[in-house]
């Protein structure tokens, strides 16, 4: 097991004037045994960052340390890491056993040891009955577990996951999420997990890196990220429905954006006046969409109410009051938290 | 066709049967001719039922060739043809899979240039470059040798191109996974790429074996010694020109013999072939 340090990591493609920088100096210190999720919208550079840690992409600038060693110039195989790919990348012509044993075979691990390790991993992942099968004879969930098994048998310092759940259906995804959590508890191996799904990020992460446009917007525990988003981007990306980011809120200063999550707005007798535009029923809760009766009239405010609360009529004017301790303020120019 | 209509079924069957007759009838005539005596072959019209000279004719050509044309026995020619076809097929596959591997998986200066160079040679068949090639082979002292028969035909742009197209469909993640597993490029080639290409290799083997076996012009130029003749050249040499009488029954027997190995290769490899087309292991 090992820590992972990213020091001012930069990735750019091409050289000179035509170069295209996609990662702009990421700094992060990942502690030994931590489960880190890198989350962001597609194209934000999260996979590139992971592939740089893996050694599949060159590091244009900065340093990556695994343990205490700078790995910039090391081949992936020498970095003592294992990766689970999005499409699993199982060798189609090899049996499940051979797929898991391949790395060990190359590393010249004795045959008896290979067998013990693969059997152990197969036991953990409940793959024992399938060891003689080829990947194409397995279901998506099983293939996914083989891919994890392949990572486990190497007993690496760091696990890298590149959106490993995105090819599974919703039910299997939730189940695999729990399995990954269990696995991490049992093995305690430092893990980096890339996803675009905020639910995955929130549930799996001990700490999470939120990325946008090649920049690390925030690095913190899911709770920190949720309760104290560092930027307007984080505020709008994490949480569903996203945080209301209001420029036209009454009593707001012109150079600030007021943030308030939909669940922290209460419908009251007095307060911010809104005209109800739409109401969505989501089972246990209800989303009320309202517009200011002042200002440009463009800004929409979402309020999350209990299912038991009274349903406001569409077109009616309601008053809402934000919970004062839940109000966030961001700089209107930089989007940074004030 | 998914429809089930008696008339359509009849028409398709009629069409297929007609096609089979058109293709099979000449083969049948060849076979019948190879079982007759010379006098019977020359009768007009030739009879269409096999005669009783099957063993005699085949034993004659295999062991001693024809009596009036070339008297080289066909058995060693068959061996020559087999060696030539196998060396060409295996050589072509070996060279083109390696060059395709280099072009797809390695980044080196002028990579695209080399690919296009190979691609351009596609447009230059053996016949076009036959004189310079002959000169080179003759200068190297490779006339009347297996090396001279096979080497100039081994380079293959078609096969390189086919392998390249196949490698491009192999997901990049597979190469990356192998890299993470610690497999070097050649290890990846032998452990992953080669097994995955097995069906492509089988298909190419069939095509190239037949190509090598059926070579006519090149062996005709390069072989003067009877012991280096291939079966196809053997047929040619049995046909005597001028007023002399060609022993068509023996020529036909040789033709049948020359047809058998390619047909066998197709029949034996067909299973693989189809399996390769049906299985999508990727």
Q: Which word captures the global form of chain B?
A: globular
User: For the record, what is the CATH homologous superfamily label of the largest domain in chain A?
Assistant: P-loop containing nucleotide triphosphate hydrolases
Mean pLDDT across every amino acid position of chain B: 87
Please, what is the average pLDDT of chain A?
90
- Strand order of the biggest β-sheet of chain A: 6-7-8-3-9-10
Oligomer: heterodimer
Radius of gyration of chain A, in angstroms, nearest whole number: 24 Å
**Sheet with the most strands of chain B?**
none
How would you describe this protein?
The complex is a heterodimer of chains A (338) and B (282). With 338 residues, chain A is of the alpha+beta class. Chain A folds into two domains: 4-234, 3-Layer(aba) Sandwich (Rossmann fold); 261-322, Beta Barrel (OB fold (Dihydrolipoamide Acetyltransferase, E2P)), CATH 2.40.50. Chain A has eight helices and 18 strands. Chain A has helices at 46-54, 96-106, 111-124, 140-152, 170-187, 198-204, 222-227, 232-237, and strands at 4-13, 20-30, 35-39, 61-66, 69-70, 81-84, 158-162, 190-195, 207-212, 215-220, 244-246, 256-260, 265-268, 272-281, 285-292, 300-306, 317-322, 328-331. Chain A has a six-stranded mixed β-sheet with strand order 6-7-8-3-9-10, sandwiched between helices. A five-stranded antiparallel β-sheet of chain A has the order 13-17-14-15-16, with no helix packed on it. In chain A, a hairpin with a 6-residue loop joins strand 1 and strand 2 (20-30). In chain A, helix 2 crosses helix 3 (111-124) and helix 2 (96-106) packs parallel to helix 4 (140-152). The longest helix of chain A is centred in the middle third of the chain and has 18 residues, at 170-187. Chain A is globular, with a radius of gyration of 24 Å. In chain B, 71% of the residues lie in helices and 0% in strands. The radius of gyration of chain B is 24 Å and the shape is globular. With 282 residues, chain B is mainly alpha-helical. Chain B has helices at residues 6-33, 38-42, 54-64, 74-105, 111-121, 130-139, 146-154, 157-169, 172-180, 185-196, 198-213, 217-222, 231-238, 248-278. Chain B folds into two domains: 6-64; 74-278, MetI-like (MetI-like fold, Orthogonal Bundle). The model of chain B has no long low-confidence stretch (mean pLDDT 87). The chains are: A alpha+beta (338), B mainly alpha (282). The interface between A and B is medium-sized, with 24 and 18 residues.
């Amino acid at each position: 097991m090992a820590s992972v340090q990213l020091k001012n990591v930069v990735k750019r493609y091409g050289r000179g004037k035509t170069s295209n920088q996609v990662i702009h100096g990421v700094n992060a210190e990942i502690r030994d045994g931590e489960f880190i999720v890198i989350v962001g919208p597609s194209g934000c550079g999260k996979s590139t960052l992971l592939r740089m840690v893996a050694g599949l992409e060159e590091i244009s600038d900065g340093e990556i340390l695994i343990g205490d060693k700078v790995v910039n110039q090391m081949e992936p195989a020498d970095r003592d890491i294992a990766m689970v790919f999005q499409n699993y990348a199982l060798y189609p012509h090899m049996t499940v056993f051979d797929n898991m044993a391949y790395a060990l075979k190359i590393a010249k691990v004795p045959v008896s040891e290979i067998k013990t390790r693969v059997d152990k991993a197969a036991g953990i992942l409940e793959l024992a009955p399938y060891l003689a099968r080829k990947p194409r004879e397995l279901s998506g969930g099983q293939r996914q577990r083989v891919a994890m098994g392949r990572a486990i048998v190497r007993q690496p310092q760091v696990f890298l996951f590149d959106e490993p759940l995105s090819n599974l259906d919703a039910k299997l995804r939730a189940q695999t999420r729990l399995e990954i959590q269990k696995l991490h508890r049992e093995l305690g191996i430092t893990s980096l997990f890339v996803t675009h799904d905020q639910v995955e990020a929130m549930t799996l992460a001990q700490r999470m890196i939120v990325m946008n446009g090649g920049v690390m917007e925030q690095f913190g525990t899911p709770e920190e990220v949720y309760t104290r988003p560092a930027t307007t981007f984080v505020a709008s990306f994490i949480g569903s429905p996203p945080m209301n980011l209001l420029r036209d809120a009454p009593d707001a200063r012109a150079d600030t954006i007021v943030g308030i999550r939909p669940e922290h707005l209460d419908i009251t007798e007095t307060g911010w006046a809104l005209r109800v535009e739409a109401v969505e029923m989501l089972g246990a809760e209800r989303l009320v969409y309202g517009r200011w009766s002042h200002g440009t009239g463009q800004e929409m405010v979402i309020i999350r109410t209990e299912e038991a609360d009274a349903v406001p009529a569409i077109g009616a004017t309601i008053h809402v009051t934000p919970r004062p301790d839940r109000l966030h303020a961001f700089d209107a120019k930089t989007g940074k938290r004030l | 066709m998914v429809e089930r209509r008696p008339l359509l079924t009849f028409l398709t069957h009629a069409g297929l049967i007609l096609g089979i007759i058109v293709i099979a009838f000449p083969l049948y005539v060849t076979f019948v001719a190879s079982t007759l005596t010379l006098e019977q072959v020359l009768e007009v019209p030739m009879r269409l039922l096999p005669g009783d000279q099957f063993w005699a004719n085949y034993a004659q050509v295999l062991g001693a060739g024809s009596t009036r044309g070339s008297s080289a026995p066909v058995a060693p020619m068959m061996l020559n043809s087999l060696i030539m076809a196998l060396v060409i097929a295996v050589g072509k596959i070996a060279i083109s899979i390696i060059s395709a591997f280099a072009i797809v998986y390695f980044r080196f200066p002028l990579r695209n240039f080399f690919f296009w160079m190979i691609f351009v040679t596609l447009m230059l068949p053996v016949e076009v470059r036959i004189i310079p090639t002959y000169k080179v082979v003759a200068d190297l002292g490779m006339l009347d040798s297996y090396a001279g028969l096979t080497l100039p035909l081994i380079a293959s742009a078609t096969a390189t191109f086919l392998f390249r197209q196949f490698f491009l469909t192999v997901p990049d993640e597979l190469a990356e996974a192998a890299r993470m597993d610690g497999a070097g490029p050649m290890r990846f080639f032998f452990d992953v790429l080669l097994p995955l290409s097995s069906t492509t290799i089988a298909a190419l083997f069939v095509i190239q074996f037949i190509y090598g076996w059926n070579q006519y012009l090149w062996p005709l130029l390069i072989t003067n010694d009877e012991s280096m003749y291939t079966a196809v050249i053997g047929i040619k040499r049995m046909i005597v020109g001028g007023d002399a009488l060609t022993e068509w029954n023996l020529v036909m027997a040789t033709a049948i013999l020359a047809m058998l190995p390619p047909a066998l290769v197709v029949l034996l490899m067909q299973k693989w072939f189809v399996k390769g087309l049906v299985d999508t292991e990727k």
